[in-house]
Design a protein that fits this description.
The complex is a heterodimer of chains A (224) and B (294).
Chain A (H helix, E strand, L loop, with lengths): L1 H40 L2 H10 L13 H18 L4 H6 L4 H32 L4 H30 L3 H14 L16 H11 L3 H9 L4
Chain B lengths: L1 E12 L2 E12 L3 E6 L5 H8 L7 E6 L2 E2 L5 H4 L2 E4 L11 H9 L8 H8 L14 H15 L3 E4 L8 H18 L2 E5 L3 H7 L2 E6 L2 E7 H7 L1 E7 L12 E7 L2 E6 L3 H10 L4 E7 L3 H9 L3
Parallel strand pairs in B: 3-8, 3-9, 6-7, 7-8
Antiparallel strand pairs in B: 1-2, 1-4, 4-5, 9-10, 11-13, 11-14, 12-13
Helix pairs in contact in B: 3-5, 4-5, 5-6, 6-7
Classes of the chains: A mainly alpha (224), B alpha/beta (294).
């Protein structure tokens, strides 16, 4: 039964997930084409020096900045919006399953897809970086990139909460919450500067993961 | 035994009362039609039955379980058709059958494919590209394949042309009677109900107008037509008059009383009239007679 729920969710998001993953790979490819270009035209030592001088930021990995946000937003919309058209979520709630468990499985599947795509992109990024840079530079780059991927999860959970919420005024309220918290993950900071804040940002993301249960409960009680 | 039992249901939307202390039950193996004008609480009742709305007061039980907390086992016994034959439109007809088949232990895909074989659709056709009539057959086929003990159908005739409506009803009634299924249904097209239901529950704003089997209702509820000599006479407030419609001197009278009773009343009160006759009614006429045209 649970496999069937995963099947339904996959049918909704598959093309969006594939496009997001492909875009991620293209962005990494683009970054390292430029790195390769700079390596060819400057001495490696000079290039590293310039990176260190600029605070360990090597070429435009900030291309990543909005990719997880957009990817998560698109996947969450693809997954939850069809459930709200004609109140189709009723079909899911009527399945012989616990309603909260059904919502959680939907959410875990979406989050797992985001995690899998993020893992592929980060792994590719790390492996290619190893060919050009020392570990210290890579580590600080990864610490800078992680909040942007965390931002993707936060956007995913908030979008689920907002889209499934049956009352428009609450939707606006949640949008305000989103507008307050999402930019925290997207501050432009020196490489590695997010390091002390990362645990807190992770905790907030995890707490948000169950928020859609609240919208689901309100829907089942007939709030309108 | 009752498949559905609703006790003392009371519900408001803000301050607007939908109904107060509504009681009804549906016997196992029977087909009950919930009839009412728009806004009398048909969809509200369906939503309460499916656990998508918590009534302010009272409760509904399905197979003895409160509908607000139906167990998965009990939900597997209930087939639910959402108003407008809503289904997962992003799936094709093969995918949706595969999806639902894993949830129901009694799943039998034969009636599903039999119904769909009557349509000009391919297994890879997406539901979103189908007409309303075709979607209705998909939704019905899925419910039949589920083989539920109780079917709850919310306005099954919405958006269907007469052919599909007839197909839907004939298939459904034969299935229900053959397999002793219980059906609770609403429809805004009363003619459809006449072919389908055994019992009716007619609701008006804030109250129940009739709750009984269709056969006895159609035998006992009558329409009489007469032309009054004096058009100013008003008998609409008499106890035996359930409803009346008067245009100049032409009077349509709806009542549970016999022809003799009405004629005696007219005679005893010296009400001169002509062309008195009983008018044959279908369920739709009776419904309008009971609830009024407005």
């Amino acid at each position: 039964m649970w496999k069937s729920i995963l099947y339904k969710e996959w049918l909704k998001i598959r093309w969006f997930a594939i496009i997001y993953a492909a875009l991620g790979v293209l962005v990494v490819g683009n970054i390292f084409l430029k790195v390769q270009h700079d390596f060819e035209f400057s001495q490696a030592a000079n290039y590293w020096y310039s990176i260190l001088f600029q605070g360990n930021r090597f070429y435009e990995y900030s291309l990543f900045k909005f990719l997880p946000l957009v990817g998560a937003l698109v996947i969450a919309m693809a997954q939850y919006f069809p459930e709200t058209v004609n109140k189709r979520i009723k079909l899911t709630f009527h399945l012989p399953l616990n309603e909260n468990k059904a919502l959680l499985v939907m959410m875990f599947f979406g989050a797992f897809c985001l995690l899998a795509i993020a893992a592929v992109i980060m792994l590719l990024f790390t492996l290619l970086s190893l060919a050009y840079f020392p570990a210290e530079i890579i580590q600080s780059a990864l610490i800078s990139v992680v909040p942007w991927f965390l931002c993707g999860f936060v956007v995913y959970f908030l979008t689920a909460l907002i889209v499934l919420e049956p009352v428009w005024k609450y939707r606006f309220l949640y949008l305000l919450v989103a507008a307050t918290f999402v930019p925290i993950y997207l501050q432009t900071a020196a490489a590695g500067a997010y390091s002390p804040a990362l645990p807190l940002l992770i905790v907030f993301g995890v707490l948000l993961s169950v928020a859609l249960l609240f919208s689901g409960y309100r829907f089942r009680k007939g709030e309108m | 035994m009752n498949a559905i039992e609703c006790k003392n249901l009371t519900h408001y939307y803000d301050k607007k009362l939908v109904y107060e202390n509504l009681n009804f039950s549906v016997k196992e193996g029977s087909i009950l039609g919930l009839l009412g004008k728009n806004g009398t609480g048909k969809t509200t009742t369906i939503n309460i039955l499916n656990g998508f709305l918590q009534p302010q007061n009272g409760e509904c039980l399905i197979y003895g379980e409160n509908t607000q907390k139906l167990s998965p086992q009990n939900k597997a016994r209930i087939g639910f058709l959402i108003e407008g034959h809503v289904q997962y439109a992003f799936m094709n007809i093969h995918q949706i059958e595969k999806f639902y088949s894993k949830f129901y232990p009694k799943w039998d895909n034969e009636p599903y494919w039999e119904l769909l074989s009557k349509l000009q659709v391919s297994p890879k056709q997406k539901i979103s590209t189908m007409s309303c009539g075709q979607r209705s057959q998909v939704a019905l086929g899925l419910i039949l394949a589920q083989d539920p003990d109780l079917l709850i159908l919310d306005d099954f005739s919405m958006g269907l042309d007469p052919g599909y409506r007839r197909l839907f009803i004939d298939y459904l009634r034969e299935y229900a009677k053959e397999k002793n299924k219980t059906i609770f249904t609403t429809s805004h097209i009363i003619q459809d109900m006449e072919r389908l239901i055994d019992d009716l529950l007619i609701m008006d704003f804030n109250r129940v107008l009739a709750q009984r089997d269709v056969k006895s209702f159609m035998q006992e509820f009558k329409q009489f037509y007469l032309e009054l000599e004096n058009p100013t006479i008003d008998i609409s407030n008499e106890d035996f008059v359930v409803n009346s419609e008067k245009v100049s001197n032409k009077l349509e009278l709806y009542t549970y009383e016999s022809e003799d009773t009405i004629l005696n009343f007219l005679k005893n009160n010296g009400i001169a009239h002509k062309n008195f006759r009983q008018v044959e009614m279908g369920l739709e006429d009776a419904f309008i007679g009971l609830t009024g045209k407005y």
